[in-house]
Amino acid sequence: MVFIAVPKNDTIGALVPHTLEEPIVGRSEGPLAGLTFMVKDLFAIKGRKVSNGNPDFYHHATPAAETAPVIARLLDAGASLIGINVCDEFFYSVLGTNAHYGQPINVRAGNHVTGGSSCGSAAAVAAAMCDFALGTDTGGSIRVPASFCGLVGLRPTYGRIDTRGVTPMAPSYDTVGFLARDAKLARKLGQLLLEGESVTAPITRLILAQDIVGESEASIDQAMWDTLDKLLGAIPKPEQMEIAGEDIVAWRKAFATTQGFEIQSTLLPFVQSHNVNLGPGIKERFEIAAGITFDEAESARAVRGQVTKRLKEIVQPGTVIVLPTTPTLPPERDIPDGASFAEFRTQTLQSTCLAGHAGLPQISIPMGKASGCPVGLSFIGWEGGDETLLDLAATLELFIRA
User: Fold this and answer.
1) Among 86, 116, 149, 263, which is least packed by CB within 10 angstroms?
2) Model-level pTM?
């Protein structure tokens, strides 16, 4: 018999106050037997409530009637669920802070944030509190913390991992993803969780997003080129291409507008009807979302259609885009999620909105450190190319660690 312990001394702040008292033990046999995982505080667990990062929501919530299918699949594969992770309030940030539940510690860069909104999930995996964790990615919430905490993180092709039993934010962007310390485990998780059509192909063309890379901090840019030099022979020589150019600002604004408009139908009704106490930054974002008009949303959707067409013309089977996962280093801890954070958020979303708009898979892998902080290298693949990206990550991990 295998005994699985629930973490009792959460010194890094990764767990919500209402985390599990006892583990939910998976099957004794299966491909994940003996492994442990945690989940972001938006996944339904039978008999338990979610808070979505807000104690007012938790107070009014009712216990789930069923466990989210993605969790059930992991339990059936032998993994044991041992904790529920803190997330940014209502997932409306990429910073990794929560005014109510605190700020998880990034053990890989103690003076810097984890990134969010899957902040507790990333913090727990980086600190080896569990083997892997589930999160969600709407605007970068898997990819950003993966980069800042030195982890492998997958945002899958839209719709390829079951989102039933997961609190929706912006449903046309929402995806379930996962975080792990090594690419081999990430590949195994993909084999278990990915559904729908898989389109595998050897990677014969690598496009470097010249305009996105050009906006990155110098130390991240240098880390990327050093890593790509290490990988020569394992991947094609990158060819530089301008992906968005000056249109990138419009692409980012279209994401923010579409996301905000969809929030009017998901999270905003509860926030308004219960006069919810919101933290700084989150409050202002909800106010902006409430004011988005139908015509503004339609214009943003038109831009999204253009982005999708552009990216799918570039990213055909066999072709992937490479870029730093984030253009900036992780900000220092304890900065307020407000005006001082606006520039970081803007820069980040201009990078992460690409895959989100087009529903394409993107994987972030560690590429060492820049200025003492972990940084991630990302690959955006074609629709259904998730397995190819996971295989690529497993191969490249050997080169990067050599």
Assistant:
1) 263
2) 0.97
* Residues sharing a CB contact under 8 Å with residue 159, sequence separation 6 or more, in sequence order: 175, 196, 359
Q: How far apart are CA 326 and CA 348, in angstroms?
A: 6
Alpha-carbon span 353 to 31, nearest angstrom:
34
How many other β-carbons are positioned within 10 Å of the β-carbon of residue 287? 13
| Active site members | 40, 117, 141
- Cβ atoms of 163 and 176 within 8 Å: the answer is yes
Domains delineated in the chain: 36-401 (3.90.1300.10)
pLDDT in tens, 67-114: 999 999 999 999 999 999 999 999 999 999 999 999 999 999 999 999
Return phi, psi of residue 178, to 5°.
Answer: -140, 160
The model's pLDDT over 189-235, given as tens digits with 9 standing for 90+, comes to 999 999 999 999 999 999 999 999 988 999 999 999 999 999 988 99
Select from 107, 184, 136 the least CA-distant residue to 374. Answer: 107
Closest CA to 352 of 256, 288, 258: 256
